[in-house]
């Protein structure tokens, strides 16, 4: 696209070029700089009186000092004398990208348009006009590395969210809508506060921290998980130190575990401090710092809190009572260690 645009402005050829630029492709930036370097004087005035004055100031038009008159309207709206003597150029996105639906393109920033141009160079030619949805899917893949045809798993969903924030660019509204609809097709991912995670990098980081911490801390009762599962996307706040419902199960999902090094590398997950008694699994050690202090009093506090919570459960299964007995044994062992300082 960039090469095609610049080919429309050959130096020392046309004294006057009249441009229809409804999508502001020629906005301030590399193209304007290149035109000026080629000796063009660019006039971009919406007011017809101001336009006429500016044009008069640069007459006569010559190939040595060519003039470009830019309008966001169709070329037919340009004053007739300018239209008649000028070289006509249409820079609408619908013409520059004939095979793509123009609506999603108009939401892109100028930088995203240039990146799309680079990405399309590495793809096979588009053989037929794409629909709106197909265009949106192509833009997600080309600009954000998100392939909606991939399997919809928590690990892939988390990677897509990471890709959005790694670009440091806003996700256009129509692309955000289609991605949100895709993510909500999975019943587990649909419980995530998706809008907050897509819009706010801090919210995503805190969400990841809470889910990672939940995979390492003792499990909470079923009743508590169910009572906390209804998260409101528009107003969610996170406290990564508080117990969280399991929405991204790092403890069981090996694909999520494989993401942990990337999360640490991209500073989306800060290492958490745990006591040596916790013995974190191998996959989590890159995001864990072992506190050398005596953690047994803290361990006892956590176990007692977990016991209190478990005793409120109405469950009476064998697994429930076996887990309770094991925790009670750990509490008893710590309670009667002679060198463990216990607060009253």
Fraction in helix:
40-55%
- The average pLDDT score comes to 82
State the order of secondary-structure elements, H for helix, E for strand: HEHEHEHEHHHHHHHHHHEEHH
Q: Main sheet?
A: 4 strands, parallel
Low-confidence stretches: 220-242
Total of helices? 16
Per-chain topology:
Elements lengths: L1 H6 L8 E5 L9 H8 L3 E3 L4 H11 L8 E5 L8 H6 L1 E4 L2 H4 L5 H4 L4 H12 L10 H13 L9 H13 L6 H11 L10 H6 L1 H16 L5 H7 L25 H12 L6 E4 L12 E4 L4 H16 L6 H18 L9
Parallel strand pairs: 1-3, 1-4, 2-3, 5-6
What would you say this structure looks like, in words?
With 344 residues, the chain is α/β, with parallel strands linked by helices. Among the domains are: 2-96; 102-189, no CATH class; 294-344. 47% of the residues lie in helices and 7% in strands. It contains 16 helices and six strands. The chain has helices at residues 2-7, 30-37, 48-58, 80-85, 93-96, 102-105, 110-121, 132-144, 154-166, 173-183, 194-199, 201-216, 222-228, 254-265, 296-311, 318-335; strands spanning 16-20, 41-43, 67-71, 87-90, 272-275, 288-291. A four-stranded parallel beta sheet has the order 2-3-1-4, sandwiched between helices. A two-stranded parallel sheet has the order 5-6. β2 (41-43), α3 (48-58) and β3 form a beta-alpha-beta unit. It is elongated, with a radius of gyration of 30 Å. It starts with a helix and ends in a 9-residue tail after the last helix. Residues 220-242 have low confidence and may be disordered.
């Amino acid at each position: 696209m960039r090469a095609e645009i610049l080919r429309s402005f050959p130096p020392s050829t046309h004294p006057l070029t009249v441009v229809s630029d409804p999508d502001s492709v020629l906005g301030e930036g590399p193209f304007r700089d290149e035109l000026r370097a080629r000796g063009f004087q660019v006039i971009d005035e919406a007011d017809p009186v101001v336009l006429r004055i500016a044009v008069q100031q640069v007459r006569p038009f010559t190939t040595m000092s060519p003039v470009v008159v830019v309008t966001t309207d169709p070329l037919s709206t340009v004053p007739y004398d300018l239209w008649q003597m000028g070289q006509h150029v249409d820079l609408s996105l619908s013409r520059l990208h004939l095979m793509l639906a123009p609506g999603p393109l108009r939401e892109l920033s100028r930088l995203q348009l240039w990146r799309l141009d680079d990405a399309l160079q590495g793809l096979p030619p588009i053989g037929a006009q794409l629909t709106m949805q197909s265009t949106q899917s192509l833009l997600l893949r080309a600009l954000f590395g998100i392939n909606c045809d991939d399997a919809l798993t928590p690990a892939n969903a988390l990677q897509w969210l990471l890709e959005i924030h790694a670009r440091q660019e806003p996700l256009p509204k129509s692309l955000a809508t289609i991605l949100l609809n895709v993510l909500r097709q999975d019943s587990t991912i649909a419980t995530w506060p998706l809008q907050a995670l897509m819009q706010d990098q801090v919210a995503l980081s805190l969400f990841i921290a809470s889910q990672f911490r939940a995979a390492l801390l003792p499990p909470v009762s079923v009743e508590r998980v169910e009572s906390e599962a209804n998260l409101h996307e528009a107003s969610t706040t996170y406290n990564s130190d508080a117990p969280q419902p399991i929405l991204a199960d790092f403890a069981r999902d090996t694909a999520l575990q494989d993401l942990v090094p990337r999360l640490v590398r991209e500073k989306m997950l800060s290492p958490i401090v745990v006591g040596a008694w916790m013995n974190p699994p191998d996959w989590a050690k890159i995001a864990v710092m072992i506190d050398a202090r005596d953690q047994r009093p803290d361990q006892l506090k956590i176990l007692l809190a977990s016991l209190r919570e478990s005793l409120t459960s109405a469950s009476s299964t064998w697994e429930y009572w076996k887990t309770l007995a094991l925790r009670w044994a750990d509490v008893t062992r710590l309670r009667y260690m002679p060198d463990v300082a216990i607060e009253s």
